[in-house]
Amino acid sequence: MGAQLRVYKRRIRAVTATKKITKAMEMIAASRIVKAQRKVAASMPYATELTRAVTAVATGSNTKHALTTEVEAPTRAAVLLITSDRGLAGGYSSNAIKQAERLTERLRSEGKDVDAYIVGRKGVAYYGFRERKVADSWTGFTDSPAYADAKRVAAPLIEAIQKETAEGGVDELHIVFTEFVSMMTQNAVDGRMLPLSLDQAAEESGTKGEILPLFDFEPSAEDVLDALLPRYVESRIYNALLQSAASEHAARRRAMKSATDNAGDLIKSLSRLANAARQAEITQEISEIVGGASAMADATAGSDK
Question: Is residue 301 exposed (0-12), middle (13-18) or buried (19+ Cβ within 10 Å)?
Fold first, then answer.
């Protein structure tokens, strides 16, 4: 076997092994998308009813609460960015990071300082490589988040917005995550979680335009808000984590399918080159045999004379 043919066969074996790996990863990601979609659907009723309750308390009372009252001149904001722990998911993490960069620039143009909170190793690595300060970070659960993870992420954010800015607190809380639209479409989006916009809350809970009933609150509306709003933030973050997980699996499935298809095309191309090299070797061998036989015939004819 010629050297060129051996090179082609070695490359075909390597690409075939890679194709098996990417195909397996594609199938794993496809199976996880369904589970993630079910979790997103299961989290929606709780989030919707909790938002309805928060909206009812906020609109049914005249209480000014730290988590629902707009600051007249906000000077500091927190941005929670959700990325992935693992790669091989196409532009999933980079799109979320770009959206966070745009949001950060917009907030800074409004005269606000920005504290970054990061979920996922990709986001942490991005900020670490650029030596940017990160207020807090969490890793290790992005592909399958639990509600306990959302509570862990929400705790320092709620604490920060309840503090005065002079004491290290923030006036606004924003979140950047990847919204799962379909198997083929996932969009990096951002939104403000706190202070709570009543119009936004009414739209999320489906009560926009409705006349809400009047309530009496025990022990007080402020105490009810103290209890409900942290749960609201946790549910928003949990839903964002679930949507991001579904988006990550969908992006990884799409990337692995593309890699598998490309590997198949490369194998076909290398096979054609290997066949051409083998044909060239056969042709050369035939030419050498014919040439050798012709030389022997000529030598035999000369000796007979």
Answer: exposed
In whole angstroms, what is the distance from residue 83 CA to residue 204 CA? Answer: 24
Distance CA 274, CA 271 (A): 5
The C-alpha atoms of residue 192 and residue 12 are separated, in whole angstroms, by 51
> Residue 287 has what pLDDT?
78
Neighbours of 138 (CB within 10 A): 22
- Residue 119's alpha-carbon distances to 122, 135, 138, in angstroms, are 8, 11, 5
The count of other CB atoms within 10 Å of the CB of residue 291 is 10
Compute φ and ψ for 131, nearest 5 degrees: 55, 40
Question: What's the rounded Cα separation, in Å, for the pair 107 and 236?
Answer: 21
Strand order of the sheet with strand 172-180? 136-138, 113-119, 76-82, 172-180, 186-194
pTM: 0.82
DSSP assignment, residue 116?
Answer: E
Residue whose token pair is 């960015």: 81
- Other beta carbons within 10 angstroms of residue 216's beta carbon come to 7
pLDDT digits (tens, 9 = 90+) for 108-129: 999 999 999 999 999 999 999 9
Cβ neighbors of 113 (< 8 A, separation 6 or more) are: 75, 76, 77
Which has the closest alpha carbon to 256: 267, 264, 268?
A: 264
The amino acid at residue 73 is: A
Residue identified by tokens 């040439």 is 291
Tell whether the model's pLDDT for residue 202 goes beyond 70: no
Looking at this protein, which amino acid is placed at residue 284?
Q
